[in-house]
Amino acid sequence: MTTATFSGRVVERVALFGALTSTFHGLHLWADRWLQRPKDAVLKGLQGDELVYPSDGTPSGEIVREDEVAVPASVVGRRAATGHVLTYAAGQLVVTEVVVRLLGLRLPWRARLAGAVINFGTHWVIDRRRVLLWLAERVNHKDSFIAYATVLRKPDAEPDTSGPGTALSDLDQGLHKLLGVLAAAVMARLAVPARRRVRGAAC
């Protein structure tokens, strides 16, 4: 029976990857739900050029408000998604810093920056819904799952197709967590780079 041996760098990298992965997984719902403003949760998926009011997304054609200027729905959606992702990223950075310090791990700023870019960028794109819906149509016909698993919030109201409890919300959460694993792997690799081989040294 042979026993695999790993260098200290590999062990350190795997330990950091495990710590980051569990941290991202554990804080995800807290940052994604507790830190998210209700307004951002409702408006972040808005698309199109229809004029709506920024405060609640109500179409300007349904009601006239003298104290509020209507803007395109896509603008409101982008603002809401950005606000949500900023609070998410801030919460993630704070919790990650606490965990890293408590465990005495080394996490250079370039690794932190790479993780923040991956998590921020992908989270924003997913929460804007267009890419998520595009993927859903092409991966195992998830568009039919989205149409099936909806939630009726109020009697006589249109079914909610994207909020908590819906198929789209579940797909959203699954993709966020998968990309969190990718971010953790990239961060660990950058934090503990491979040792450079010296030319002429024995392998």
Strand order of the largest sheet: 1-2
Low-pLDDT residue spans? none
* Class computed from helices, strands and strand pairing: mainly alpha
Order of helices and strands: HHEEHHHHH
Strand content: under 5%
Helix coverage percent: 55-70%
N- and C-termini, Cα separation: 23 Å
* General shape: elongated
Nearest-integer average pLDDT: 91
Radius of gyration: 22 Å
Keyword list:
203 residues, single chain, mainly alpha
SSE map:
Elements: H1 8-34, H2 38-43, E1 51-52, E2 71-72, H3 73-103, H4 109-127, H5 130-138, H6 142-148, H7 167-191
Antiparallel strand pairs: 1-2
In short:
The chain is an all-alpha fold. It contains seven helices and two strands; from the N terminus they run H-H-E-E-H-H-H-H-H.
Task: Describe, in plain words, how this protein is organized in 3D.
The protein has 203 residues and is mainly α. It has one domain. Helices cover 61% and strands 2% of the residues. It has 7 helices and 2 strands, in the order ααββααααα. It has a two-stranded antiparallel sheet. α1 (8-34) packs across α3. The chain is elongated.
